Amino acid sequence: MNPENNPDNQVGARRRPSPFGRIERLPPLAVALYLALLAITVMFFVLIVAYVAARLRSGVPTGLHPLPRYFSLSTIVLVLSSYTMAQAPRLYAQDDLGSLARCLGSTLLLGCVFAGLQGLGWRELLAHGVPFGGPGGKSSGQFVYLISALHVAHLLGGMLFLLAFLLRVIHNERDAVRTLVFIRNPYYRRQLRLLGTYWHFVDVLWVVLFAVFLFMY
């Protein structure tokens, strides 16, 4: 065999791109999303550490009050919304904008239900005597409100993006030509993929937060 024709001898034939090279090829929107997810992760990690420290410092025994049942219900709802969101790429690939619109609409509705259940959970916390704050801001109860509210705020940000994409799907579904252009546009495909990534991230984040509350409350 001629060595020059051997793929193993060709320059860069087996050279894998460096991590920085892969990052450079990422679309700017994807880079911005991944950086935002990293920042969100760091922020909630700091809040969880602060909550656990305040909870241990308070000396109040765990299990004194039951964790709001609405938090448990909201967890189920958010997991369901993650399932419906996971169906979106398949429907997009099948050029089924009608089903895609219903799928995204269901996800948006479940997100609204989750936010409402969180509000009911806060009211239940108040009924159990858990205050928004404490003397000198040292009460661990305030972290439950703060962490939950911040998570809802990030979910609402995803819901706005989801609503905008849903309206675009509904608009393009009404015309065959617009449907074809929409389906074949890689920008919209990338938007849907990034939207799913963010939604699943928010879902996993809440499951982790709920587990911490369940263990430390």
Which features would summarize this protein structure in a list?
217 residues; mainly alpha; membrane; Cytochrome c oxidase subunit III; Cyt_c_oxidase_su3_a-hlx; Cyt_c_oxidase-like_su3
Task: Give the topology.
Blueprint (H helix, E strand, L loop, with lengths): L18 H7 L2 H31 L10 H18 L1 H6 L3 H31 L13 H33 L2 H9 L1 H31 L1
Helix pairs in contact: 2-6, 2-8, 3-5, 3-8, 5-6, 6-7, 6-8
Structure write-up:
- It is a single chain.
- The chain has 217 residues and is mainly α.
- It contains eight helices and no strands.
- Helix 2 packs antiparallel against helix 6 and helix 6 crosses helix 7.
- The chain is elongated.
- The mean pLDDT is 84.
- Belongs to the cytochrome c oxidase subunit 3 family.
N- and C-termini, Cα separation: 70 Å
Q: How are helices and strands ordered from N to C?
A: HHHHHHHH
Structural class: mainly alpha
Quantity of strands, as a count: 0
Name the helicity range: over 70%
Oligomer: single chain
The fraction of residues in strands falls at under 5%
Give me the Rg, rounded.
Answer: 23 Å
Task: Indicate the overall shape.
Answer: elongated
GO biological process, one term: aerobic electron transport chain
InterPro entries: Cyt_c/ubiquinol_Oxase_su3 (IPR024791), Cyt_c_oxidase-like_su3 (IPR000298), Cyt_c_oxidase_su3-like_sf (IPR035973), Cyt_c_oxidase_su3_a-hlx (IPR013833)
Transmembrane segments: 31-54, 100-122, 142-171, 192-216
Main location: membrane
